[in-house]
Specification:
By secondary structure, the protein is of the alpha/beta class. Helix content is 39%, strand content 14%. The strands form two sheets. The chain has a seven-stranded parallel β-sheet. It has a two-stranded antiparallel ribbon with strand order 8-9.
C-alpha cells in the first residue's frame, strides 16, 4: 500500500466510513467449485438464506443501484465479486467507466470463463484477478468449464493477476507450487501472482484444509520460490503473517475496513468476506495478511495498527454525531 493511499484510507476511517468495499454483483456462476465460500450454507448467516436464493439485479437496474451504493459509501477501493461478475459483463461495460471516472480503484475477480475485453486495459485503476485452482489436471476437474485452455484464450491481450487458493490436496505432491509458478510466470498477460490458503468455517472438515505442519511448510516453500519467481507478489513480511493470523474478525484490519454487500445490494456479509463463522486461527486470506503486515509497521515507534484502532474510534464518534444530527433535522 502506497503512503498516499494509506493516508487516504486513514482520513476515510476518521470520517466514519470504511475505505474498502466488496460487492457480490450477481448470484450466478457457471461453475460449481468444491469449497467455494460464497455458496456455503453459512455464508449469509444460515437460516436457509444463501447466495443462490438471494434476489439480484440485471441490466440498467443493476448499474444504477450499484453506482448508487458506491456513491453512498464512497469507498477508495471496490472489489467486484459474485457469483462470477463476468455473468454481468454487459453491465460491467457501463459500471467500470463510471467507477474509473470517480477515481475508485477496482478489483474484479473472475474465473475467466468469458473473454476479458482488451479495452479494459485502459482503466489504470482496474485489477482483473483470475482464480486458478492449482495445476491443470486439478483445476480443470474443479473449475470446468473455465479450464486452462479456455482461460488462456480468454485473457489474451489483457493484463491480469492470477490468484490461487492453496488446499490440502496440493500439499500431497512435492514441487507442486514450483510447477504452478513456472507455468503461469511465462504467460505474458500475467502481471502478478497471489496465493491464499484455504480458510475453513469453525467445525468444518475436508481435504481442502491444511494441517498446521502443512501450513508452516507451504509458507517456507513460497518464501524460497518468491526469489526465483518475482511474479509471485508476496513479501516476506506478508508471508510471516500467515503463521500468526489475526485471532478474530475484531483483530483483522481487513475485516474491519471492508463493507461487504451481497447480490441483493442490501444484505451485509459478516464478519468478513467469508461470512458465517470462519475459523480465524486457520485464516489464509492474503488480503487479511497484507493489511496485518501494514498494521505491524511503525511510525515513530507507534504501530500503524494502534493508529488505525484510534482512528476507527474517532470515526465511530463522528458517524454517531452525524446520525444524531440527521435525527434532529
Amino acid at each position: 500500500m502506497k503512503a498516499q493511499e494509506l493516508l487516504h484510507s486513514w482520513s476515510t476511517i476518521l470520517s466514519g466510513r470504511k475505505p474498502l468495499m466488496s460487492i457480490e454483483i450477481t448470484r450466478e456462476c457457471p461453475l460449481r467449485c468444491p469449497g467455494c465460500y460464497a455458496y456455503d450454507d453459512a455464508h449469509l448467516g444460515g437460516n436457509g438464506v444463501t447466495l443462490r436464493v438471494l434476489s439480484d439485479y440485471k441490466q440498467d437496474e443493476l448499474v444504477v443501484r450499484m453506482l448508487a451504493l458506491v456513491d453512498e459509501h464512497r469507498p477508495l477501493h471496490v472489489s467486484i465479486v459474485g457469483g462470477d461478475p463476468m455473468v454481468r459483463y454487459r453491465e460491467l461495460e457501463k459500471i467500470l467507466p463510471e467507477l474509473d471516472e470517480r477515481g475508485i480503484h477496482v478489483q474484479l475477480v473472475t474465473s475467466a470463463f468469458r473473454p476479458i475485453p482488451m479495452h479494459w486495459t485502459k482503466f489504470t485503476r482496474l485489477n482483473v484477478v483470475v482464480s486458478i485452482d492449482g495445476l491443470q489436471p486439478d483445476h480443470d476437474e474443479r473449475r470446468k468449464p473455465a479450464t486452462y485452455e479456455r482461460i488462456l484464450k480468454n485473457i489474451q491481450g489483457s493484463r491480469v493477476t492470477i490468484h490461487s487458493t492453496i488446499t490440502g490436496q496440493m500439499m500431497k505432491r512435492e514441487g507442486y507450487f514450483e510447477e504452478f509458478l513456472a507455468f503461469w510466470s511465462k504467460i505474458p498477460e500475467i502481471k502478478r501472482i497471489w496465493m491464499s490458503i484455504f480458510t475453513p468455517q469453525h467445525g468444518a472438515v475436508g481435504p481442502e484444509i491444511l494441517t498446521p505442519e502443512e501450513r508452516v511448510r507451504v509458507i517456507g516453500e513460497l518464501g524460497k520460490l518468491r526469489t526465483r519467481f518475482p511474479v509471485l507478489d508476496m513479501s516476506e513480511r506478508v508471508l510471516r503473517e500467515f503463521l500468526h493470523p489475526p485471532k478474530s474478525p475484531d483483530e483483522c484490519i481487513f475485516a474491519r475496513t471492508t463493507e461487504i454487500v451481497s447480490a441483493d445490494l442490501k444484505t451485509r456479509v459478516t464478519p468478513c468476506q467469508f461470512g458465517g463463522n470462519p475459523d480465524c486461527s486457520q485464516c489464509g486470506c492474503m488480503a487479511s495478511m497484507g493489511l496485518a503486515a501494514v498494521g505491524h509497521l511503525e511510525i515513530g515507534g507507534i504501530g500503524l495498527g494502534k493508529i488505525f484502532r484510534a482512528s476507527e474510534r474517532i470515526g465511530r464518534g463522528v458517524d454517531k454525531l452525524r446520525n444524531s444530527q440527521k435525527e434532529v433535522a
